[in-house]
Amino acid sequence: PSEVMDMFHREALRIPADATANLKADAVTRTANTDAQEWGDCPRCGQPVRKTGRMWQCSTNKTEKTKDGKWATTAGCGWKMFARIAGKTITDQTARRLLAGQTVTLKGFTSKSGKKFDAAIRIDKERGTAFDFDR
Ligand SMILES: [Zn+2]
C-alpha cells in the first residue's frame, strides 16, 4: 500500500508542477505579444485593430497632436472605439467579443440625465460602437 501511496503523491505533485510550467509558458507568450495583441479586424477596412491608451482603433490610423494641443487622426481609415461608453468601461474581454461581431448586453450605463440603464452594444462601422435597440 505504501508504494501506491507513493505513486499518488508523485502524481499529485506532478500536476501542479505541470500547471505552473504551462502558466509560465503562457506568460512568456503573452509578454512577447504585448505590442501586437490580436483584437480582430477593423470593421471598416479589415486591417488589424490595436489598443492604444483608452481606445481601440484601426492600426492604419495615425494620430498627431495639432496646434491647439488636441490629438487628431491624420491618416488611416479613422475607425475607433472608446473604452468608456455612457459611463461604463469596456473591458478587454468585452472588446474582443464586440470585435468578433457579437452584440454584448451590458448593465449599468448612465444616461446624460444620470439614469442607469442596461443595453446591448455592437460594433458600428461609422461610429465605433452603437447601442442595439432592436433587441
Ligand atoms: Zn480600419
Please characterize this protein's 3D structure.
The chain has about 140 residues and is of the alpha+beta class. The chain has two domains: about 1-30; about 35-130, no CATH class. Helix content is about 30%, strand content about 35%. It contains two helices and ten strands; from the N terminus they run αβββββββαβββ. Strands 1-2-5 form a three-stranded antiparallel β-sheet, with no helix packed on it. Strands 8-9-10 form a three-stranded antiparallel β-sheet, with helices on one face. Strands 3-4 form a two-stranded antiparallel ribbon. Strand 3 and strand 4 form a beta hairpin. The longest helix has about 30 residues, at about 1-30. The protein is elongated. Residues about 30-35 have low confidence and may be disordered. The chain binds zinc ion (ZN). Zinc ion binds near residues 44, 58, 60, 77 and 79.
Number of individual domains: 2
Ligand set: zinc ion
Proportion of helical residues = 25-40%
Q: Beta-strand percentage?
A: 25-35%
Query: What's the SSE pattern?
Result: HEEEEEEEHEEE
User: Strand order within the widest sheet?
Assistant: 1-2-5
The chain-level mean pLDDT equals 84
The geometry reads as elongated
Q: Report on the biggest sheet.
A: 3 strands, antiparallel
Total count of strands: 10
* Class inferred from helices and paired strands: alpha+beta
Rg, alpha carbons: 22 Å
Number of helices: 2
Distance between the termini: 62 Å
Residue stretches low in confidence (pLDDT < 50, at least 5 long) are 29-34
